[in-house]
């Protein structure tokens, strides 16, 4: 009798292990349906938002993917990758998508991006929530996080004003084109050119007293120091700019943007207003120029963006 009981239990066990049914029998014959989730369609997921904001401060790992490191937004359109890499032109260039920098294809949850300069990169793609993707680069053990938006709800101005320090770096030089008739005389009256370079938590600037009309690559830089850009409470569009000269006093200004190539500096100490125009815009596309400021964005300094969350795809 004991032998027959053992054989009976064995036959039930084999039947359960080899069954292909989606129902599991538990105590008291309660039936539980096992739901198998369909794999995510990667093409549909990438296409669900027109813009993917690169949340650079959320990046995990010590690797660096140049085209993502430099981009504010990425878009995946019919096999082509577009990026907003510069603040000059953001919101208008490429109808808001930016410039064509790469091609892409998807297979088995993997995204392959073939950059025009840097070549092919493979990512594993994970959907974190309704509008957040993780692009995991296994070769460097690095993850980038993208947040999805539609163009008509994306805050281009917010990106611009939260990252003015990058905007200042997008010209080879800024030439003084206006000095107000009012205001006390001060040493900054003699400075006709400014240049902003990246590097470190504080970034380097240079100034020149060369006469107007000199090409940026022919300027002689008289002074060097570090500069910082700060916020003014209650006014998102007005910033502070501090020029900390080596061996000289600091100059403090209120900085406002007139347009994408012209800025205004108000010097509170002398109450003088200056205007500067950008000369020779730098396009952050290539990854191998000689100057650091044209190769990659400085990740020691946080890049910010106050965005409105949009959880529902179009």
Short description:
13% of the residues lie in helices and 40% in strands. It is mainly beta. A hairpin with a 6-residue loop joins strand 12 and strand 13.
Q: How many distinct helices?
A: 5
Give the helix proportion (percent range).
10-25%
Specify Rg, calculated over alpha carbons.
28 Å
Could you give the order of strands across the largest sheet? 3-4-5-6-7-8-9-10
Quote the beta fraction: 35-45%
Low-pLDDT segments: 1-30, 34-39, 286-301, 306-314
Give the terminus-to-terminus CA distance: 67 Å
- Series of secondary-structure elements, N-terminal to C-terminal: HEEHEHEEEEEEEHHEEEEEEEE
Q: Note the main sheet.
A: 8 strands, antiparallel, barrel
Number of strands: 18
Mean of the pLDDT scores? 82
**Class from secondary-structure proportions:** mainly beta
Characterize the overall form.
elongated
Written description of the protein model:
It contains five helices and 18 strands. An eight-stranded antiparallel barrel has the order 3-4-5-6-7-8-9-10. The chain is mainly β and 314 residues long.
Topology:
Blueprint: H1 2-18, E1 23-25, E2 31-33, H2 42-47, E3 51-54, H3 66-70, E4 73-77, E5 80-84, E6 99-107, E7 110-115, E8 119-129, E9 132-137, E10 142-149, H4 156-162, H5 164-168, E11 171-179, E12 193-196, E13 203-208, E14 223-232, E15 235-245, E16 250-259, E17 262-267, E18 272-281
Antiparallel strand pairs: 1-2, 3-4, 3-10, 4-5, 5-6, 6-7, 7-8, 8-9, 9-10, 11-12, 11-18, 12-13, 13-14, 14-15, 15-16, 16-17, 17-18
